[in-house]
Amino acid sequence: MKITRRVKEILANYESDNPGTKGNLARILMEGRLGGTGKMIILPVDQGFEHGPARSFAPNPAGYDPHYHYQMAIDAGLNAYAAPLGPLEAGADTFAGAIPTILKMNSANSLSRQKEGADQAVTSSVQDALRLGCAAIGFTIYPGSDAMYDQYEEIRELSAEAKSYGIPTVLWSYPRGGNVTKEGELAVDIIAYAAHMAALLGAHIIKVKLPNDYLENAEAKKVYLERQIATGTLPERVRHVMQSCFNGRRIVVFSGGAHKGEDAIFDDARAIRDGGGNGSIIGRNSFQRSREDALVLLDRLVKIYLGKE
Amino acid sequence: MKITRRVKEILANYESDNPGTKGNLARILMEGRLGGTGKMIILPVDQGFEHGPARSFAPNPAGYDPHYHYQMAIDAGLNAYAAPLGPLEAGADTFAGAIPTILKMNSANSLSRQKEGADQAVTSSVQDALRLGCAAIGFTIYPGSDAMYDQYEEIRELSAEAKSYGIPTVLWSYPRGGNVTKEGELAVDIIAYAAHMAALLGAHIIKVKLPNDYLENAEAKKVYLERQIATGTLPERVRHVMQSCFNGRRIVVFSGGAHKGEDAIFDDARAIRDGGGNGSIIGRNSFQRSREDALVLLDRLVKIYLGKE
Amino acid sequence: MKITRRVKEILANYESDNPGTKGNLARILMEGRLGGTGKMIILPVDQGFEHGPARSFAPNPAGYDPHYHYQMAIDAGLNAYAAPLGPLEAGADTFAGAIPTILKMNSANSLSRQKEGADQAVTSSVQDALRLGCAAIGFTIYPGSDAMYDQYEEIRELSAEAKSYGIPTVLWSYPRGGNVTKEGELAVDIIAYAAHMAALLGAHIIKVKLPNDYLENAEAKKVYLERQIATGTLPERVRHVMQSCFNGRRIVVFSGGAHKGEDAIFDDARAIRDGGGNGSIIGRNSFQRSREDALVLLDRLVKIYLGKE
Amino acid sequence: MKITRRVKEILANYESDNPGTKGNLARILMEGRLGGTGKMIILPVDQGFEHGPARSFAPNPAGYDPHYHYQMAIDAGLNAYAAPLGPLEAGADTFAGAIPTILKMNSANSLSRQKEGADQAVTSSVQDALRLGCAAIGFTIYPGSDAMYDQYEEIRELSAEAKSYGIPTVLWSYPRGGNVTKEGELAVDIIAYAAHMAALLGAHIIKVKLPNDYLENAEAKKVYLERQIATGTLPERVRHVMQSCFNGRRIVVFSGGAHKGEDAIFDDARAIRDGGGNGSIIGRNSFQRSREDALVLLDRLVKIYLGKE
Amino acid sequence: MKITRRVKEILANYESDNPGTKGNLARILMEGRLGGTGKMIILPVDQGFEHGPARSFAPNPAGYDPHYHYQMAIDAGLNAYAAPLGPLEAGADTFAGAIPTILKMNSANSLSRQKEGADQAVTSSVQDALRLGCAAIGFTIYPGSDAMYDQYEEIRELSAEAKSYGIPTVLWSYPRGGNVTKEGELAVDIIAYAAHMAALLGAHIIKVKLPNDYLENAEAKKVYLERQIATGTLPERVRHVMQSCFNGRRIVVFSGGAHKGEDAIFDDARAIRDGGGNGSIIGRNSFQRSREDALVLLDRLVKIYLGKE
Question: Any idea which residues are catalytic in this one (chains A, B, C, D, E) (predicted)?
Answer without folding.
Answer: 174 (proton donor), 207 (schiff-base intermediate with dihydroxyacetone-p)
